[in-house]
Amino acid sequence: MFLFAAFFAATAAADEGMWLLPYLQKMNIADMRAKGCELSAEEIYAADRSSLKDAIVIFGAGCTGEVVSPEGLLLTNHHCGYGAIQSLSSVEHDFLKNGFWARSRAEELPAPGLEVRFVRRIADVTADVLGAVPSTAMGEERAELVKKQVAEVRKRFGKEYPGMEISVKPFFGGNQYFAFAMEVYKDIRLVGTPPNSIGKFGGDTDNWMWPRHTGDFSMFRIYAGKDNRPAEYSTKNVPYRADEYLRISLDGYEEGDFAMIMGFPGSTQRYMTSYEIDRMLTITNPQRIFIRGERQKILAEDMLASDKVRIQYASKYAQSSNYWKNAMGMSRGIERLDVKRKKQEQERAFQQWAEANSVDGERYDEALGMIRDAIAASNEAYAAQQYLNEALQRSVEIMTPASYVIAAVGKKGKKLEDPEALKERLRGFYKDYNPATDRRVARRMFELVMEHVKELPDVFVAAEGQFDDLDTAVDYLYDNSVFADETRALEFVDRFSRERLDEDPAALLALSVTGKMLELQQAQKEANRNYADGHRLYIEGLMRQYPDRAWAADANFTIRLTYGQVLPYDPADGVTYHYYTTLRGVMEKEDPKNPTEFSVPDKLKELYAAQDFGAYANGRGELPVAFLANLDITGGNSGSPIMNGRGELLGLAFDGNWEAMSGNVAFEPALQRTISVDIRYVLFIIDKFADAGYLVREMTLVRDGKPVAE
């Protein structure tokens, strides 16, 4: 266990790092205190009592949120709440366009399917998982041994923390393991959201860019049973009683001030090699950019033509577009910042060290070769699998309800399990489905697949012999499948027939695509095992090579802390970006020719004209909107609280900057910035714009660390 003693022997001194909470005392707190943090490590994270981390939650499937009142009031980004807001919207009640604010607890809207997770326990279980795994074990043998031990740990934690969700995650390429016990609350209600013209101001044009003027926030409330434990939705539930919640700072920040973020970063690949960068630049990103771009053109046209379709596809379009632009920025950043060459230099140094220092059984000198060969062996199948995933599984929606029914009956079954639950699931799907739009998308996606994928799913091969042209095949699919229409799909469930399911063209398509995806996945299995071994050995070797360096694990959607300073940056020669923006910039960006992205509500204009900023103006009389800090975040951190040295809320992180989009692979301290919405702008919108000041009064506002008297 030499390795893990070395991991935490050094003190972190760089802005890079998504740090594990249990090791703040050993690795980070001295540096944090030197930079301006006033909290102790135990006040941030304590294993056996409540601490700051108990105010932070996983919000939904992939974001972060924070509790800001004793009664379960929760803030996150507007784009994180977007799916829930969209699902609660209709043409008659368009909360996306007009916003929504509950005027009392009774008006708060249940958001079905939305959950939040509190991390209640974190434990290093490396010894439990790897203690019974021989250091020489590789490939399938190692994977099976690890899988068995992880299952044992989950079982034991499940007994220790009954009713909680248990997760065991690998770190450092599988060299370390942590277990997490999480309490899952399922009764979450929408309290308020600004309109798109504030919460999505700037749209795709401003996404990932600075200067930024987006009021990217929404507000929910957590409800619980009367025992304060998780409970399914009920009118008898009560607001969650929070032992820990964030106080709200009205002090703001100045350049150089300490700042920190706690949240759930999704995924980084900081230990990626040059071979993986080649794959990203030649396969992953180009395919994603092209396929999503083609689909988004069609969605945008239909959304512009119909309010109903706009609401149905708002969340789908936003999710697709976000990582479409991310992929473009990632490739641009990697090439512009010469990341591949820097990785190659690191690899050459590592190989020299490994050949001189590896002893029998360690195999560090084989690590890079294993990664290189695994990538080369799997590239063709990987490319085909990704193409089918992007063009068919993610894009052609008619397969989704067909897959629901297939799953409900099984491969050989003749009866549906729980048909009422299935019908409820189908109704949820069709609420946000437009068959005409999906038909247009399918026509284009099928065309792309047939042009770019060599090994087609069987149904495509059969269609080439059955139909004269692509248009005829697509029309046959949508004209003859029961899944192209909600009424027919629900009637089919009521009169279910296995024979009809086996003949349905959408079901045949879904089964064929899934089968080909599994085939391609199987083709990569051996290469992926070899890659996993090489990746693990490479990381372990790097840490042996540089034992005094502070190493941070890649993000894997577990709770982390990052810290640094509020800072501007220089994106290019002769250009300096200020570290905050103001409401004046919102007014300057208004563009009547682009009302979808740069529309400003009349009331916001009136408040600006009157300079009616109340207690939310800064010392210069401006209303701050967004600001920058050199913090290390990625997807999943959306909605994370950015806090000052006392742990008070300064704002909500919502984006990274365009110039450092390569940050998931290589952190660039001179360029990498987190973009956050200023909490004072959030409060201003709630209080002055939405006239929902009662929500502000529910929070604890502070100046100089002391509560502000009402």
From TrEMBL:
Q: Which GO terms describe its molecular function?
A: dipeptidyl-peptidase activity; serine-type aminopeptidase activity
Task: Supply the alphabetized keyword list.
Answer: Aminopeptidase, Hydrolase, Protease, Serine protease, Signal
According to its UniProt entry, one GO biological process term is: peptide catabolic process
UniProt xrefs under Gene3D superfamilies: Trypsin-like serine proteases
Q: Which domain of life is it from?
A: Bacteria
Name the Enzyme Commission number(s) assigned to this protein: 3.4.14.-
**Which EC main class describes this enzyme?**
hydrolase
InterPro entries, alphabetized: Pep_S46, Peptidase_S1_PA, Peptidase_S1_PA_chymotrypsin
Q: Which PANTHER family match?
A: PERIPLASMIC PEPTIDASE SUBFAMILY S1B
The UniProt function text for this chain reads: Catalyzes the removal of dipeptides from the N-terminus of oligopeptides.
Family in the record: Belongs to the peptidase S46 family.
Q: What is this protein called?
A: Dipeptidyl-peptidase
Q: Which species?
A: Alistipes communis
